[in-house]
Amino acid sequence: xxxxxxxxxxxxxxxxxxxxxxxxxxxxxxxxxxxxxxxxxxxxxxxxxxxxxxxxxxxxxxxxxxxxxxxxxxxxxxxxxxxxxxxxxxxxxxxxxxxxxxxxxxxxxxxxxxxxxxxxxxxxxxxxxxxxxxxxxxxxxxxxxxxxxxxxxxxxxxxxxxxxxxxxxxxxxxx
Length: 175
What we know:
This protein is mostly helical. 86% of the residues lie in helices and 0% in strands. The protein has helices spanning 2-42, 48-53, 59-92, 98-167. The longest helix is centred in the last third of the chain and has 70 residues, at 98-167. The two termini are 35 Å apart.
């Protein structure tokens, strides 16, 4: 009876071991994809080539980030541009030709848009760091679970083998 119990336990532990290995593989792939995406975000601007090279699992997040970054940069630019333009006009005293004034307005708008994109990138990087910490903690938990299963599997196999030896017939030669 003990042999069957130990064999069933060994089978169950092997199944658990494979499940944990599968989860670790998925988690490792997710962490790798997240790191590639994080590198792309930290670079500053995302190009079409970056989008084509990005992992498929991160495509939705990438597109969401692009929309968020653009919208928040536009909002930042629209909120702050009048202040900077007014400050510039006060500094120049209004004695400037319209072409120079338009060039300066364009420069202000571009600069503010870039600052808004940088702020969005910082927010996304902070979010990615939090996700990465969660994934690292989950990976450590799975590795501990994997080690516990391996230890228990070893003990169950040893107990099964010992039980098999106890049940094995023992023949002695008589002289």
